Amino acid sequence: MNTLIVAALLLRYAWLLNRADEDAKLAESKLHNLLESAPDAHLIVNSTGRIILVNAQAEALFGYPRRELLGKPFDLLIPERLRTSGTSPIREFFAEPLPRTGKMGMELTILRRDASEFLSGLDLSPMRSPDEMLVTSVIPSFSGRNPLLPAAVAPMPGVIRILLIEPDVAEELVLRQALAQSTELSLAIARVDTLAEAFRLLRESEFDVVLLDLDLPDSRGLETLRRLKQAGAMVPVVVLAARYDEQLALQTLAEGAEDYVARKQVSAGALGRILRRSIERRLYMDTVRENERQFRYLLDASPSVIYMTTPCPSGYRCHTVSEALREITGFEPESMISDPGFWLAHVHPDDRSRVLTEVAGSMQAGSGVVEYRFQTASGGYLWIEDRHRCVLGHDSTKQIVGSWTDITARKNAGSSSLLSSRRS
């Protein structure tokens, strides 16, 4: 998740803390969940240098419970030998509160609770609250030195293959010099002047990252990025800009860029880290998408209806349901996902009270099996065997994960046998 987008969301989150109405609480909860799901460690620090907000990744990365970080100076995370040297990234930032990446090219040594240390970049962005200036501090969990990098992510290649789309030869020389100083990895840089040439090279060769100037002889502004993404370029794109423009930065991220870099505000050391992190982030997201694709394939390959739902005041809110729902009941999966009252409304009226009681018992016991009649899209009823378990979601709410099996034939066979035995 990009720093600029999260910073904007965090500002909204901080503002919402001053509102008490239910709508604000709901929005606050959504933003809080987004922050908690961010892959990087996020801290918000006030003008006195004290931490006022921490996400789950920060707890995992630093080894501190949240309560031990809130209200403490940011310098708690810096080794004492460096604190006494008089340098503080937060103090320096408030002296000149401009967005910057990687502490303007310096790698920060982070001190964990267990006294171990690691090197990382540090992204800093200003946030204006109604009362004071704040700073959002992001310590990436994608650093090559960071042990939290998922094992499933493929390693970076020994050579970073960069496609530089830049019409200015002088800027190319500056970037080449900066990149030569900023990374221990080998670089292979190919420069083109136009988007048309970039399309040709992307078809003929493989690249690890694209550095893109938005203003080209054959394309200008955001349209340049849109055309590049629409052409099917799957390589991560880092946008180069002459100066920092927050609105443009957010727009480029929304259009699919991995990062936005203002040339004059990012030093040589930071630029290399931005490129490495962009590649690593893309590898990580590709792995996540592939895992999701495989999960969905397994889900939809099952002949049973697989579902996940959460109790709510209006019924049961379904988060996921497999395509088998259509095969068994005739209803589209979206029908069950969009309407919390859908499931109970289609349980046979004579079964509803019993089913609700048994499901409540299952939630207490942790698992259960319930049999009931369920109305199909054609208006008839079929018998369902609903096997389910209770699990805790990421926000500690109880969720039900289960499967439906059509047992209509078994029930009808049992009824026929019972009727025959009575007649005999």
Count helical runs.
17
From the N-terminal CA to the C-terminal CA, the straight-line distance is: 71 Å
Given as residue ranges, the uncertain stretches (5+ residues, pLDDT < 50) are: 16-21, 142-157
Mean pLDDT over the residues: 77
Structural class: alpha/beta
**Radius of gyration from CA coordinates:** 27 Å
How much of the sequence lies in strands comes to 15-25%
Silhouette: globular
Q: Tell me the number of strands.
A: 16
- Describe the largest sheet: 5 strands, parallel
* Sheet with most strands: strand arrangement: 8-7-9-10-11
Query: What percent of the residues sit in helical stretches (DSSP H or I)?
Result: 40-55%
Can you walk through the features of this model?
The protein has 424 residues and is an alpha/beta fold. Helix content is 42%, strand content 24%. The chain has a five-stranded parallel β-sheet with strand order 8-7-9-10-11, with helices on both faces. α1 packs antiparallel against α2 (22-37) and α8 packs across α12. It is globular. It starts with a helix and ends with a helix.
